[in-house]
Design brief:
Length: 268
């Protein structure tokens, strides 16, 4: 299934993937000691995305900073699996998992257990320098694990020039990473982001990635607003949006609905 386009990204209209930013989970430094407030936060944001008409949703352990360099703790994986299982029942739309910082194997395991549809991997190929240290590509171990557990139906969305990091080799360009992630790393879609969470994505990077991997679905991974999303069309297949959907730190269903309506009026 390497390089197979996810069906929900096949529409002629852009797709809105809403982000559920989970509070700190067990073992994270900022964990508050109780699971129920985390579950309530997840339900509230998820139901707002559903009410607003989001086309898909991705859950991530956003509150777990500082993130581990490699594998997540068993407690994190167990908690996120439980939350994702409930999310699957509450909102029967395409569901994704992002296990920060770069635990794609753990994310695949969670997705397979709960029936999720895709995962996000920050560094699938190459190497990046981040606050965690050096993040190395995990394509080989991830694809082998996905094959071993029979989870080939789960799509891999891979970041290109991922936020909160810099390339280890300065000569490794956006084109190189897009081409390698799509053609050699087994990605099913590519994600382009800005420098950090909520920061705008460079339209030139999107065009360069598209030129290097023209068959790959492209997603905008940060900084999308109602005023800016048209800059990325027709190349962008969809938009992963979290910050712009929030009011006072919570997902607002009317903001979600505005994005959905705007996307419906546009065309790729």
């Amino acid at each position: 299934m390497i390089g197979m386009k996810p069906l929900f990204l096949s529409s002629k209209k852009p797709c809105l993937i809403g982000v559920v930013h989970l509070p700190a989970l067990p073992t994270a430094p900022n964990y508050k000691g109780k699971l129920e407030p985390i579950r309530q936060s997840m339900r509230r944001d998820l139901l707002a995305l559903k009410k607003g008409g989001a086309h898909a949703v991705i859950m991530e352990n956003f509150g777990d900073t500082p993130f581990p360099l490699h594998s997540s703790s068993p407690a994190t994986i167990a908690c996120l699996t439980s939350l994702a299982s409930e999310a699957r029942d509450l909102f029967p739309a395409p569901l994704g998992i992002n296990l920060l910082r770069n635990d794609g194997v753990g994310a695949i395991a969670i997705a397979h257990a709960v029936g999720a549809d895709f995962i996000r991997v920050n560094v699938l190929v190459g190497a990046r320098v981040a606050d965690q240290g050096i993040l190395s590509g995990i394509a080989e171990s991830l694809l082998r694990f996905r094959k071993t557990i029979g989870a080939e139906r789960i799509h891999i969305f891979a970041d290109v020039d991922v936020k909160h990091s810099a390339p280890l080799a300065p000569g490794y360009t956006v084109e190189d990473e897009a081409r390698d992630a799509w053609g050699r790393g087994g990605a099913d879609a590519l994600i382009l982001s800005g420098a950090g969470t909520g920061h705008g994505t460079d339209p030139d990077h999107v065009r360069r990635a598209h030129s290097a991997a023209p068959q790959a679905p492209l997603l905008i991974g940060s900084g999308t607003t109602l005023d800016s999303f048209s800059e990325f069309l027709p190349e962008a297949t969809g938009f992963i949006v979290g910050t712009a959907l929030k009011r006072n730190g919570k997902i607002d269903s009317e903001r979600v609905a505005r994005f959905v309506r705007a996307f419906a009026k546009s065309g790729r």
